Amino acid sequence: QVQLVESGGGLVQAGGSLRLSCAASGRIFSSVAMGWFRQAPGKEREFVAAISGIVDSTDYADSVKGRFTISRDNAKNTVYLQMNSLKPEDTAVYYCAARTVASLSTYDYQYWGQGTQVTVSS
Questions:
Q1: Tens of pLDDT along 63-88?
Q2: The three-state (H, E, C) secondary structure of 9-37, written as one string
Q3: What does the alpha-carbon distance between residue 101 and residue 109 come to, in Å, rounded to a whole number?
Q4: I need a surface site. Which of 13, 80, 106, 113 has the fewest CB within 10 A?
Q5: For 98, how many CA atoms within 13 A lie in the half-sphere containing its CB?
């Protein structure tokens, strides 16, 4: 069983930055893909970014490319989402997710965290 705990959310002004963290349990963290998703009020959950296991390939939603960076520290079993140049439309609950395989995916995740709120004021 994998447990995921997000942290780092909060309130920030437009143009500001936040770094989200997701601490994962489990001994095989380095070999599985991890992702970040978000859900704004009244909207469906959407893919934000992902990082593969083993080779650390990355993928991003078009809406965050060039502004967000996903990374991982396997020694700490933690994945990060660095968010720069934040916009009001980035306001959402952000969720960390884990797969059971190394390959990237924008939708097929088996484990989810509880979410952390990010609010960007204009």
A1: 999 999 999 999 999 999 999 999 99
A2: CEEEECCCCEEEEEEECCCCHHHCCEEEE
A3: 9
A4: 13
A5: 27
- What is the Cα–Cα distance from 103 to 116, expressed in whole angstroms? 25
- AA identity, residue 61: A
- Tell me how far apart the alpha carbons of residues 114 and 3 are, in angstroms, rounded to a whole number: 10
Integer Cα distance of 32 and 22 in angstroms: 14
Q: Label residue 56 exposed, middle or buried (CB < 10 Å: 0-12, 13-18, 19+).
A: middle
Kindly state the average pLDDT of the residues 102-118. Answer: 96
Nearest CA-CA partner of 22 in 83, 69, 73: 73
Structure tokens that stand for 60 in this block: 């991003």
pLDDT of residue 46: 98
